[in-house]
Design goal:
The protein is mostly beta strands. 11% of the residues lie in helices and 40% in strands. Helix 1 packs antiparallel against helix 2.
Length: 215
């Protein structure tokens, strides 16, 4: 699945609702609260993880999530990748996993534990109380949001961070005289993942957004 959105604006917000619905809205002009110099040392507190280059591997990306929706932010310059997940996407199909013998065996396991016979209790619990089947299905990635920014290969003053206090992943850099900032967070009250793209030059933000999924 692939969807494209093109925009030339000052500020744009992308919202993913977790059910394959993809929305976009924008407000032209400079975004309030975006400083000119993203590398001013006084802006970066001790609660931030920060890096001077984009993530090259999944384990280097910055995570955001709200317990149901999650994303990994890679922070590429001309091509950014945001992998996202939703907690009901698994292999297999819905099924009951409880062991029908568990309730009958529970007092036996308790008695053995009180008698100090832990090994015997563990053996009975493993055989008669664990889920059926024992192993769960595999959690799956939902898809990837790719943001393509033409002409941003030579960006300078690059910095990406994860703010532990606010749970916001942020990328900040300059191209020519323009400063670009990307912010990603996952809201629990609203149950959405939000991507906020800003540029301090009016109509300075041009990009293409594409969503792909392995399913």
């Amino acid at each position: 699945m692939s969807r494209q959105i093109k925009a030339t604006v000052g500020t744009l917000v992308l919202v993913w609702f977790g059910n394959s619905v993809f929305g976009a809205g924008y407000a032209p002009g400079r975004a309030a609260g975006i400083a000119d110099d993203g590398c001013n040392a006084q802006r970066w507190g001790s609660t931030k993880l920060w890096y001077l280059q984009p993530a090259q591997e999944w384990t280097e990306a910055l995570p955001v999530g709200n317990g149901r929706l999650g994303a990994m932010v890679f922070g590429g310059l001309s091509r950014d990748r945001i992998q996202f997940n939703e907690d009901t996407l698994w292999t297999g199909q819905p099924r009951e996993h409880q062991n029908p013998e568990a309730l009958e065996q529970l007092p036996i396991v308790r008695r053995l534990l009180f008698e100090g016979k832990q090994r015997e209790a563990e053996a009975i619990a493993m055989k008669h109380m664990m889920s059926v089947p024992l192993r769960l299905e595999h959690y799956q990635p939902f898809g990837d949001l790719y943001l393509h920014f033409p002409g941003h290969n030579e960006g300078t003053n690059y910095r990406r961070e994860l703010d532990i206090d606010t749970a916001i992943a942020r990328v900040h850099y300059r191209v020519g005289e323009a400063t670009f900032t990307r912010e990603v967070f996952s809201s629990f009250p609203d149950q959405v993942i939000v991507v906020r793209l800003t540029c301090d030059k009016p109509s300075g933000l041009t990009f293409t957004a594409t969503i792909d999924s392995p399913h």
